[in-house]
Design brief:
It is built from no helices and 6 strands. By secondary structure, it is mainly β.
Length: 84
């Protein structure tokens, strides 16, 4: 068993782009929410959409939450999110 997992994210739309985000997990919807990833990314509004892959420690949880905390343009954008 690997000691890590991958989190794949695509954050681009033409007029909006995520600048900063975090990923958290919890065993219950009421929490507590535990942060496993927090990143700041470049403005992606003027580039072809691409997939970013991040490596995180393996955790066992029922809920995963993606939160956009800052954005470029008119708002946050999330096209794809997967955990493997």
């Amino acid at each position: 068993m690997n000691s890590y997992s991958t989190c794949r994210v695509s954050l681009t739309l033409l007029i909006r782009s995520t600048k900063r985000f975090r990923v958290e997990y919890a065993k219950s919807l009421a929490g507590p929410w535990i942060r496993i990833l927090e990143k700041e990314v470049a403005d992606a509004r003027s580039v072809t959409p691409y997939l970013m892959t991040y490596t995180v420690d393996v955790v066992f949880a029922r809920y995963v939450k993606f939160t956009c905390t800052e954005f470029y343009g008119w708002g946050c954008a999330l096209q794809y999110f997967a955990i493997h």
